[in-house]
Here is the input.
Amino acid sequence: MRETLFNWLGQTLYGKRCLDLFAGSGALGFEAASREAEQVVMVEQDRSVYKVLQESLGKLALPNVALHCNDGLKFALQTNSTFDVVFLDPPFQSDLLTRLMPRLMQLLTKDGVVYIESGGAFDAGPDWQVLKQRRAGAVHYQLLERTQP
Here is the structure.
């Protein structure tokens, strides 16, 4: 899935600002950083997972990555930054995607995109256009952009 995602995004993310709201293992954020993203902000709520992310970042020495130990929804509601790419892979049994979608309208740059992983088909609503979508086993994933007026 990760290979497909980065094929969708292009092989380089040079100059892009990326947000990974539910970083988990950090695979998406670290991959974006290694593909020359200008900045990658990774948010992880679980303290033990956050510490592993810190250790990984120390080993990888990626100066373009900023880690935050925070709840993804709270971070999204509090930040004033905008991003070109937002990665969303929240716990599948939560309602976080539904709660986050309205806020993402303000977090994205004009041409920004959102990548979503979910445990079932997810309809982001009329404000969003599906650019690409696939399914791998029980995981549904899609790339969205705002619907143009």
